[in-house]
Amino acid sequence: MATITSNKACQDIGPNVRVLKSTGQLRELQTVLRDVETSRSDFMFCADRLIRLVVEEGLNQLPYSPLSVTTPTGYGYDGITFEKGNCGVSIMRSGEAMEQGLRDCCRSIRIGKILIQSEADTREAKVYYAKFPQDIETRKVLLMYPILSSGNTAIQAVQVLKEHGVKESNILLLSLFVTPHAVKSVTEEHPEMTILTSEIHPHVPLHFGQKYFGTD
């Protein structure tokens, strides 16, 4: 069993924290998603592209095994096949924006959901709903949440997964934008999980969910 790592595609900036390598394409997508003048249709188009980039790199972090196949011309080819037993979990509602990107890459993957909201007076994250595959404790989990600002919601979501038997080291958090504060908070609370994002920046597009779902 092994995992694919690409120095060209992503960079390790600390223990279990990986950031997509900055490119012109990536920077343009990040710019469009921040621009107050961006229309909703353009926003959704660029968001889906960025989600796909993050999901594709996330899949590179999953374990695989060698596989030899025979081509239509009769030649043998030594390739790989990804291990079975992966699933996605979206943190509602904004995390649901990432589900289609995952399904576009893994057609039959199972996806669970968590609903976590912050209490108005204490700002404490509280779990209202959680539904997972019955055997989630045996799976690698791609946890999807596009914007990490404080990190409180992600921290609570990981805790719920652990309470359902998921090993912390089997959780890969896929996020589009993450603040330095969130990285510090999440990794201190759950040091064995992995975070993959397109960017770590003090100012993240907090309007993402509202803009994407048209509730702004």
TrEMBL record:
GO terms for cellular component: cytoplasm; nucleus. Keywords: Cytoplasm, GTP-binding, Nucleotide-binding, Nucleus. It is found in: Cytoplasm; Nucleus. Pfam families: UPRTase (PF14681). The keyword Ribosomal protein does not apply. Transmembrane segments: none annotated. InterPro entries: PRTase-like, PRTase_dom. The keyword Ribosomal protein does not apply. One of its GO terms (molecular function) is GTP binding. Residues 22-203 form the Phosphoribosyltransferase domain. It comes from the Eukaryota. Belongs to the UPRTase family. This is Uracil phosphoribosyltransferase homolog. It comes from Branchiostoma lanceolatum (Common lancelet).
